[in-house]
Specification:
Rossmann fold; seven-stranded mixed sheet; six-stranded parallel sheet
Length: 513
């Protein structure tokens, strides 16, 4: 069948329906043709990094593999950020590149560098795929992409060369798992436990959590373990100031599906015993885990008398403290207005930047993977391409993309992709013409405003230039109307909100201390 045929068939057999990318000629186009013959749709993007983010978000939403196709040389160097995002955010992604053939490397220097060496640090594995590749080798290689610890895998297509596949990467060994009865007995002995659910937590967790009856914090990527309004939901865990006292007061912290890539750097809060329940074997170095169980949470979580009040009171207190300095057209009011309009079945993608400090504590998440964010890499530019991928994966659900002006500028050309595909995505820009999160960290002697300040941009006009519907909001009274118009359009829509950034300093101080 050959390299291209085996790759296309392997993707098809693993449930892949969409491949994204920016192709070069030759092998790239041959692969795209073979993918289409196998029932896999190719989606043309403007940038390789954005295409990879589209694919990884599509894979997270569908629970299957998605892939990105890029050309040799500049395509490979450009896709690095997208591959790193998938690997650090534990999202399934196959990165497929063509290359200067081995048979020509002695004489061809144009666009030639060691592509596998470039991508090896940001992928789980990399492989040279030749015509001698077998279906069994492809199955084994792709099996690590959407396993318990997902990430990116790189396939370098070189039909005339022999196949060479990196061995599986060695990972930190998890601590020895304890028996279920030992862990259950330890949990039963706790008087004031608190639970933190993470990226690897199972979707069907509400029943076991309700039986255990302890307050629940979620990481950004573990959000939705309990729906908004649940009496046990205490909010988000980031390893920062907002939830610190809650953990200090606990006599036990129970981690469920927690990954070391999720928390903010810094010391672990409190001195309570930490017990980990890992649906997939996981190494724990960040939190001082003393006892671990590998298996389903329902197997070890005992039934306790619920202690609701602390959870609800904590979440109310967090939101009230963050809102103390809220402005009529500030980021918190923007988030509240959007949440009041956006339906429960909708999805939300969030970019890196100061605005996410307002989004995450207030957005009413009702199910797992309803909110997508780059947490492990925390890269700017994620929200728009992730919205494209999520919308293609779930076309009946409206998607709200919440981005800062800096992040949107990085992926601006993908507005054309969004318009061309006619997806029901509303891109909302927190437009304050600066790198606000970096500005808040700036100290004397670290440059002046030229290090963090941009010129003004009219994103609504830019979107209209691509043929999109768009509006500018510079008055708080118009927020609800703008979001209703976007939702009613069921088509690409951009809302350019001229945000009042003055409350960000307060949000930062309350969130991070």
């Amino acid at each position: 069948m050959g390299a291209i045929g085996e790759v296309a068939r392997a993707l098809r057999d693993r449930g892949c329906t969409h491949v994204f990318g920016v192709p070069g000629g030759g092998p790239n186009l041959e692969l795209i043709g073979e993918l289409e013959r196998n029932g896999i749709e190719f989606v043309l993007a403007h940038g390789e990094s954005g295409a990879a983010m589209m694919a990884s978000a599509h894979g997270l939403t569908t629970g299957t593999l998605s892939a990105v196709v890029v050309t040799r040389g500049p395509g490979v160097s450009s896709v690095v950020n997208g591959a790193a995002q998938a690997t650090l955010d534990r999202a399934p992604l196959v990165v497929i590149t063509d290359t200067v053939p081995m048979s020509q490397r002695d004489r061809v220097a144009h666009q030639r560098f060691d592509q596998r060496a470039v991508l090896r640090p940001v992928t789980l594995r990399t492989a040279r795929i030749g015509d001698d590749v077998t279906a069994e080798e492809m199955l084994e290689l792709l099996s690590c992409v959407d396993g318990g610890r997902s990430g990116a895998v790189h396939l370098d297509l070189d039909a005339g060369a022999s196949t060479d596949i990196d061995p599986p990467r060695s990972v930190d060994q998890p601590m020895t798992a304890a028996a279920a009865d030992v862990v259950r007995a330890r949990l039963e002995g706790s008087d004031h436990p608190i639970v933190i659910t993470g990226i690897h937590a199972p979707d069907n967790l509400s029943g076991p959590l309700e039986s255990f009856g302890a307050p629940v914090l979620t990481t950004y990527q573990g959000a939705g373990a309990l729906a908004e309004g649940h009496p046990l939901l205490a909010g988000m865990f980031t390893n920062a100031e907002l939830e610190r006292q809650l953990l200090v007061d606990a006599d036990m912290v129970v981690l469920i599906g927690f990954d070391d890539v999720e928390p903010m750097p810094g010391p672990w809060p409190g001195t309570a015993e930490v017990v980990a329940i890992d649906p997939v074997p996981t190494a724990h170095r960040f939190a001082p885990v003393s006892l671990a169980y590998v298996g389903e949470p329902a197997d070890v979580l005992p039934e306790r008398t619920p202690s609701h009040s602390g959870a609800c009171e904590h979440l109310r207190s967090v939101r009230a403290r963050l809102s103390d300095a809220a402005r009529p057209l500030g980021p918190i009011e923007l988030v509240r207005s959007a949440a009041e309009v956006w339906p429960d079945e909708g999805m939300v993608t969030v970019d890196a930047g100061a605005h996410f400090l307002a989004v995450l504590p207030f957005w009413p998440v009702t199910r797992r993977r309803q909110l997508l964010i780059s947490n492990g890499l925390a890269t700017m530019g994620y929200a728009l391409p992730a919205a494209v991928g999520a919308s293609l994966a779930s076309p009946d659900r409206p998607v709200l993309s919440l981005t800062g002006d800096g992040g949107l500028q990085m992926m601006l050309a993908e507005l054309e992709t969004l318009q061309r595909l006619q997806l029901p995505v509303c891109v909302t820009v927190f437009n304050d013409s600066e790198l606000t999160l970096i500005k808040l960290k700036q100290r004397d002697g670290q440059g002046d405003q030229r290090a963090v300040r941009y010129g003004a941009s009219n994103f609504a006009a830019i979107a209209e230039g691509f043929g999109m519907s768009a509006t500018v909001v510079d008055n708080a009274e118009n927020l609800h109307e703008a979001f209703r118009s976007a939702l009613d359009a069921r088509a690409p829509y951009l809302i350019d909100v001229r945000i009042d950034p003055t409350e960000y300093r307060h949000i930062m101080a309350v969130s991070r201390g």
